């Protein structure tokens, strides 16, 4: 006799963890550390001041696209999504709100607390990845909102003695930062005192050292002229926008949504055909971004322009396809050479895989660890009081630290010494990642 109620079907098995996803995420973390610390020495690698893309501009879109892939592979309940969103946002506020350990000081000024940042943007994209219409809203607001003239009360890191007038009265101003709809909305919601601005000061109109800043260590020949304030536009002093502003954050949802689509391809397409599908998608996205850029819709990270989002998403998908071919496609056992190559690639990339499995851990510690280490420094007293030289010169790490000056000073230029220091720092973090992987120590949010 058959039972009246059939036994409940078992839940579908979870998809296996993708080594290629962790490897690309780990490479992105390593790239983040690299460009953060080497950008001062090599400005062409640092974030673009406005239009155009650099190596540093590839980090954030890669994180967002990989977040989308993870959403598709492991969708969460509403409670889990809300909990993770809040944790990401609060951790981002802790690290980038303006009061975390750095420059031998800490403490949060609630008046200037910065509400937006990298992790906050990822949290927003994670929570709203299903809202595919936000990119259209971003484009509509960017190109239709009227931006009136305004006065800047803040600039060059502080309150200005006299307000700086900024002439606008335009729509669709995207070729320079002072009159964008993105900046206007962010100032209106959070106030000018909560903006974090450092990019536009490196533009050609604002700095003779463009695309870098004046730096006595790395560019001693580039001197800020005495009449710089008179010769450059008034808006160069203004805090006009935030790199992680509200309106561009709407555009980041496209990056997350494209990542979700990549993850859905993984679930729907046979494993051996997946690299071809990913390569076609990545090539199409990157080509579309280049075509839009050539047509006049310039790639711009600060505005998260459509051309920038498509190009960077395509590049990340192509990297995923390449990594998948290397480590996730298991060759037939009889193909011994291919099997050995696959095992060798997996072993060679294991440190990056370990770093990718612990991305939040390294995001937290890559700046915090150096700040804590540099809290111990050597600075002998000076005659008449004070200390003989700045504390940075008595610290262990950093641009002026003992390691760069004495351990790597022999390599030649200050920029080359900084490069050696950064590569050593990344190697140390990769070693820590391998130890964490060995003992299954992972930070989860």
Automatic annotation (TrEMBL):
Name of the featured protein: Heparan-alpha-glucosaminide N-acetyltransferase catalytic domain-containing protein
Keyword Membrane recorded: yes
Keywords: Membrane, Transmembrane, Transmembrane helix
InterPro entries (alphabetical): HGSNAT_cat
PANTHER family xref list: LD22376P
Membrane-crossing residue ranges in chain numbering: 88-106, 250-269, 276-297, 303-327, 348-367, 407-436
Heparan-alpha-glucosaminide N-acetyltransferase catalytic domain mapped to chain residues: 17-101
């Amino acid at each position: 006799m058959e039972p009246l109620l059939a036994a409940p079907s078992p839940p579908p098995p979870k998809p296996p963890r993708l080594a290629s996803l962790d490897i690309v995420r780990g490479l992105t973390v390593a790239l983040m550390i690299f460009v953060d610390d080497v950008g001062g020495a090599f400005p062409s690698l640092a974030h673009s001041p406005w239009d155009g893309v650099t190596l540093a501009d590839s980090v954030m879109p890669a994180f967002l696209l990989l977040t989308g892939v993870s959403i598709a592979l492991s969708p969460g309940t509403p409670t889990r999504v809300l909990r993770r969103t809040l944790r990401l946002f609060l951790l981002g506020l802790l690290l980038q709100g303006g009061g975390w350990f750095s420059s031998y000081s800490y403490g949060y000024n609630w008046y200037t607390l910065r509400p937006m940042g990298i992790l906050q943007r990822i949290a927003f994209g994670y929570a709203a990845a299903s809202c595919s219409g936000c990119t259209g809203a971003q484009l509509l607001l960017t190109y239709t909102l009227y931006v009136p003239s305004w006065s800047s009360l803040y600039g060059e890191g502080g309150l200005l003695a006299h307000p700086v007038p900024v002439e606008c009265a335009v729509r669709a101003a995207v070729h320079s930062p002072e009159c964008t709809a993105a900046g206007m909305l962010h100032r209106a919601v959070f106030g000018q005192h909560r903006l974090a601005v450092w990019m536009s000061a490196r533009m050609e109109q604002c700095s003779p050292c463009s695309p870098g800043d004046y730096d006595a260590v790395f560019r001693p020949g580039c001197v800020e002229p005495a009449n710089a304030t008179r010769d450059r536009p008034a808006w160069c002093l203004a805090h006009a926008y935030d790199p992680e502003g509200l309106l561009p954050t709407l555009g980041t949802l496209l990056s997350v949504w494209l990542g979700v689509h990549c993850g859905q391809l993984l679930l729907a397409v046979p494993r051996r055909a997946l690299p071809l599908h990913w390569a076609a998608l990545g090539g199409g996205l990157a080509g579309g971004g280049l075509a839009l850029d050539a047509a006049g819709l310039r790639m711009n990270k600060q505005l998260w322009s459509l051309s920038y989002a498509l190009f960077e998403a395509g590049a990340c998908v192509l990297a995923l396809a390449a990594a998948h071919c290397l480590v996730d496609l298991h060759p037939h056992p009889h193909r011994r050479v291919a099997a050995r190559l696959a095992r060798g690639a997996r072993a060679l990339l294991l440190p990056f895989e370990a770093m990718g499995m612990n991305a939040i851990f390294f995001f937290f510690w890559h700046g915090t660890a150096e700040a804590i280490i540099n809290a111990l420094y050597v600075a002998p007293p000076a005659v008449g009081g004070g200390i003989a030289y700045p504390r940075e010169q008595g610290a262990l790490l950093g641009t002026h630290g003992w390691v760069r000056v004495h351990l790597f000073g022999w390599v030649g230029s200050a920029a080359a010494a900084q490069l050696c220091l950064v590569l050593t720092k990344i190697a140390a973090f990769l070693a820590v990642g391998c130890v964490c992987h060995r003992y299954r120590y992972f930070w989860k949010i």
